[in-house]
């Protein structure tokens, strides 16, 4: 598994009646592939995993792998409350042909450091798939600390971290402590350029769902050392990227996908599509972005 590049955390597309819209899902997937992304992440927050049935998650995983046909690695997110359920999904992901896993700490129960490390190790030992730990204490209330990552060093298939602590200096701390043992991927759109410049190897992106070309362009330009060129795109992009750090990021990004022509705004309850002043505000941000979209 090459944990480098842009990895869209793709949204799950629905029809207005709430059923899966695989045609629109594949249309967006095609746009991601065409833009040159480096992998696809299924079943994250943006994928509305918490409101998908077990069967729907399997369909999405199986059909994505089939559609991509080896063009890109497919990473399945695991966000479970029980260790046995996380292990079930690790086995199922391997069985369905996924390339890797993104693994959150235990959900709902606030596990301490020993319990979290034990959970991670149990999942890692249950599968041959490479794993990226999702470190997001802001949204999920569990901080995976440097000592915890040190305890995980013997799990060779734990290879990467989705860095979402909102602390840019944590990239440097990880590199100072572990060198290149863990690949670090920025998981916060508004900090992506900064973390890539500080040594992150990739970007688990949200607004890429609506703006794949621009996201990949920033990454590629930075790899080429063309910081000024990347900065011009990033400055245009920032008001849109800020849609990723709001509790309604799913609704906001799905509306952006719809306005960009590669998605629909339909979400599954309890989420509701945007209305009123909030909708107008978000539409205006997206409209301005589209009107001044850079030529890539």
From TrEMBL:
Q: Where is the active site?
A: 134 (proton donor/acceptor), 162 (schiff-base intermediate with substrate)
Per its UniProt record, what SUPFAM superfamilies does this chain match?
Aldolase
- Which Pfam family is an annotated match for this chain, by its short name? DHDPS
Q: Which UniProt keywords apply?
A: Lyase
* Residues bound to pyruvate: 204
Source domain of life is Bacteria
Which InterPro entries would you find in this protein's record?
Aldolase_TIM (IPR013785), DapA-like (IPR002220)
Instruction: Spell out the family assignment given in the record's similarity comment.
Output: Belongs to the DapA family.
Q: What is the protein name for this chain?
A: Dihydrodipicolinate synthase
Q: Which organism is it from?
A: Rhodonellum psychrophilum GCM71 = DSM 17998
The uppermost taxa in this organism's lineage are: Bacteria, Pseudomonadati, Bacteroidota, Cytophagia, Cytophagales
């Amino acid at each position: 598994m090459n944990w480098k590049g842009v990895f869209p955390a793709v949204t799950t597309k629905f029809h207005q009646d709430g059923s899966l819209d695989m045609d629109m899902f594949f249309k967006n997937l095609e746009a991601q592939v065409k833009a040159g992304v480096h992998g696809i992440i299924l079943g994250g927050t943006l994928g509305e995993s918490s409101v998908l049935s077990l069967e729907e998650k399997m369909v999405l995983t199986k059909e994505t792998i089939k559609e991509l046909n080896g063009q890109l690695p497919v990473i399945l997110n695991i966000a479970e409350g029980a260790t046995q359920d996380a292990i079930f999904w690790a086995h199922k992901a391997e069985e369905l042909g996924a390339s890797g896993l993104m693994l959150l700490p235990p959900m709902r129960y606030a596990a301490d450091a020993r319990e979290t490390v034990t959970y991670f190790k149990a999942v890692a030992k249950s599968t041959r798939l490479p794993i990226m730990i999702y470190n997001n204490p802001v949204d999920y209330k569990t901080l995976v600390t440097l000592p915890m990552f040190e305890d995980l060093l013997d799990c060779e298939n734990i290879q990467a971290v989705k860095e979402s602590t909102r602390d840019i200096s944590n990239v440097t701390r990880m590199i100072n402590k572990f060198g290149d043992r863990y690949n670090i991927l920025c998981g916060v759109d508004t900090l992506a350029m900064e973390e890539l410049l500080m040594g992150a190897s990739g970007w688990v992106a949200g607004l890429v769902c609506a703006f794949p070309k621009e996201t990949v362009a920033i990454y590629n330009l930075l790899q080429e050392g063309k910081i000024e060129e990347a900065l011009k795109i990033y400055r245009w992009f920032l008001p849109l990227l800020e849609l990723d750090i709001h509790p309604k990021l799913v609704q906001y990004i799905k509306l952006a996908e719809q306005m960009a022509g590669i998605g629909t705004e339909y979400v599954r309850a309890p989420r509701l599509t945007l209305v009123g002043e909030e909708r107008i505000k978000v539409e205006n941000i997206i409209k301005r972005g589209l009107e001044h979209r850079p030529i890539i």
